[in-house]
Design a protein that fits this description.
This protein is of the alpha+beta class. The protein is elongated and about 95 Å long. Helix 11 crosses helix 12.
Length: 459
Amino acid sequence: MKTPWASIAKIKVDGIHSGTGFPVTERHILTAFHVVGEPETGAIGRDIKVCFFPHCEFDDNSPPVECLASVLEERSSVKHDFALLECREVPKPARPLPLSDQCHVFVECSSPGFAIEKPNGFAPMGKVASLNEPMKREAIALGLQFDFGGGVRMKGHSGAPVLVNGMVVGLLRTAFLDEAEKTIGGILHAARISDVIAHSGGLLTCAAVSAMAALPPPAIRWPQSVPPERTPILANRKEEFQIFEEMITGQRRERVLLLQGTSDSGKTKLCNELRARAKQLGLLHSSVDLKGCPTKSEIFHSLQTDIGSAILGSSSRTDGDGRFCRLIDDFRQLAQPAVLFFDTWEKSSHEMRDWIEKQFLPRLDKMPGVVVLIGGQEVPDPEINHWGDVAVHRPLGPIKSTDDWFDYTQRKWPGKPVNRHHVEALALAADGNPGAIYRSLVKVLEGLRTQTQSAGGAL
């Protein structure tokens, strides 16, 4: 497989070549912590420059391109020896390299970088020798056995990606060295991408993919749109119900329904009816109330409980933030639809909003069977998110139609003496506010019941 040299960078700290790095997003570059800082003290170099050499890949006269970068200390780790650098934009034609937390012993690997031995680029070949090498500070690393043997000066190669089948499974951190700082036996250690993902504060969850991502997702077995067992007891909201029905039966391209309404809009009742419809059709479904700012871990356990560990097998076996990239893989492999309900969006944590809006929903194309409903007084703005073309935003306004409300009362309270004039007066007085109208109808019924009981007592 061709080496992505245009995406391999020299890292310079205070003007001195100190290591290698590579982009993992459009703005972030990954390297070893000791390349840009002092592990013992945690001190960070001030002047960090990242230089790419596109001509190494394209064999043309492209000049080197350079950018300034800074260390995201809260998303870096001395223990695992990695640092995330942030720049304004990774210069083209460099591109983010795909990450994978999947790795096996004896699999072939390569590690392109800029060691002092060969400052114009060097991509040693070898094998992954161990998945659990003990390191300082109780860290665990990949053990690598490269083919070049001993005697190679690898200084400057730290932070280089370890590539397996074109995907990054680790980054170089240390080597066994002799007194001349040359390798002994070609044995090196690499930080595991699974640890990088788990300790990067969620930043790399979206970049992490597994070997399964290379496989096409299975065809989705959508259910047939059969008539409901009962007519939903709703005042209007027929259009919202129909849109949802088309989404969960595979009849619409859009697969995100955003229901926005005030606390009196009837949103909760509508969501309950939509959830019952998904259940009636036998769909996998999970409901998460974001009120109280549940953590990502708590939300994952809700999904795991509702959908099942057998289906979310890969993510259930993964710890930390790494489980969320595996969650996407699990949903990708589904051959049946799964409906995820997220309610009370306005009460959600920034962490959860960031994951759903910027990491999960942008990857719906990789999860063709997933339908998402988000409800709340606030909902994500589809106009500013690039997944907006697969979303339908439905503000839940007032329901002023007397016909709709009278039909509702006949299904909600069959046989009760509610007449059309009652309903018309209440709908007008409440200006179509669903919550206010419902409460008024209940009071009217209680009043009628009291009158009936009093009349009965007098007899």
